[in-house]
Amino acid sequence: MVTIPLSQTQPPTVPMGGSGAPPVLDVRGLTKRFPVGGMFNSKQVHALEDVSFTVDRGETMALVGESGSGKSTAARVIARLIAPSAGEIRLDGVDVLKSERQPSLAYRRRVQMIFQDPFGSLNPVHTIGHHLARPLEIHKKARGRREVRERVAELLTTVGLTPPDEVAAKYPHQLSGGQRQRVAIARALAVDPDVLLADEPISMLDVSIRMGVLNLMDRLKEERGIASLYITHDIASARYIGDRTTVMYAGRMVEGAPSTTLLDEPAHPYTRLLVSAVPNPRAGLAKRAIQVRGEVPSLLDPPPGCPFAPRCPHAMPICREMMPGIEMVGPRHWVRCHLYGPGGTTIGSPAGPATAGLATAGPAA
Ligand SMILES: Nc1ncnc2c1ncn2[C@@H]1O[C@H](COP(=O)(O)OP(=O)(O)OP(=O)(O)O)[C@@H](O)[C@H]1O
Ligand SMILES: [Mg+2]
């Protein structure tokens, strides 16, 4: 187990990436605080605190966490729909917040977002063809009516919406939810993005069509080498599509690892809680989800220390006093938890009983 000094607050970027090439997306210390309340009672919602990660070309990073953990805020900040309070966003190594005060058209093209609600993201008065033709025209990806029509047909075919001419003439309400989400994906692809930010893209779809959309995203990642951030509540779908998974809790990143490692050997008590809630047919009904008590901390006035401490069955006095540093617990597997830090005691076997107390075992790596 390797301890990284507390002063180095961001998760280590080098062990996280896979290919050795510079990451397409590299966010460092991203923080977003929303001011709320009146002039005399101003407070801040700490929606995102010190979030750092990288995504390589052709890689999907899943961002998992419960409602309110800051996942959408992270995506909106990276898409530059909202400005961060602090931190850096690097695209192919360029610090874009420094180099462009306002996001350029090129940034808007290179970083595309897919939203949760495919209906809300399409304008009901325009045809599907119009939705796909507009970005092609704005970003000069096709010229002339014929070329635009051909590119629209190509995009619709890529996302499996055929016959393309028929689909292009339809309005959003004439398509199913899954078909609409495919249109949203086609629209994002129209401009050849480098980064795709998919914010819960399947959560509003019927279970029967979710797999189709996930498989489509996976295929496009392989074929086009796009760096994707896949945001979800569901750690099981994160494993399916994410090469790596990072877990967020109350605006902070608490653990990250290759997705299979994270599900097989979760280290952080919160990740273990999430993993314990995934149905596992092999384990049968005997498998029990970890029961947690306590409240999610207020983001308005977050207490010092680990945000999960009030609910953590393993909390030690230090957990309420000091934010844990980053600990490496395996190859490309890091955790932010005092149990793994100097003087900490790791939890017993990850597959062991959910309610196990603290084991006195050695390093978890
Ligand atoms: N514009 C805003 N003003 C004030 N608070 C905000 C604003 N946008 C988000 N928040 C708060 O920031 C926190 C994180 O919200 P966010 O939408 O990022 O969570 P999330 O992880 O995407 O949740 P969900 O899974 O429900 O979509 C929440 O407490 C939310 O209320
Ligand atoms: Mg959200």
From TrEMBL:
Residues 1-11 have a biased composition (Polar residues). Residues 25-275 form the ABC transporter domain. One of its GO terms (biological process) is transmembrane transport. Residues 1-21 are annotated as: Disordered. Keywords: ATP-binding, Nucleotide-binding, Transport. InterPro entries: AAA+_ATPase, ABC_transp_ATP-bind, ABC_transporter-like_ATP-bd, ABC_transporter-like_CS, Oligopep_ABC_C, P-loop_NTPase. SMART domains: AAA. SUPFAM superfamilies: P-loop containing nucleoside triphosphate hydrolases. It comes from the Bacteria. One of its GO terms (molecular function) is ATP hydrolysis activity. This is Chitobiose ABC transporter, ATP-binding protein 2. The lineage of its organism: Bacteria, Pseudomonadati, Thermomicrobiota, Thermomicrobia, Thermomicrobiales.
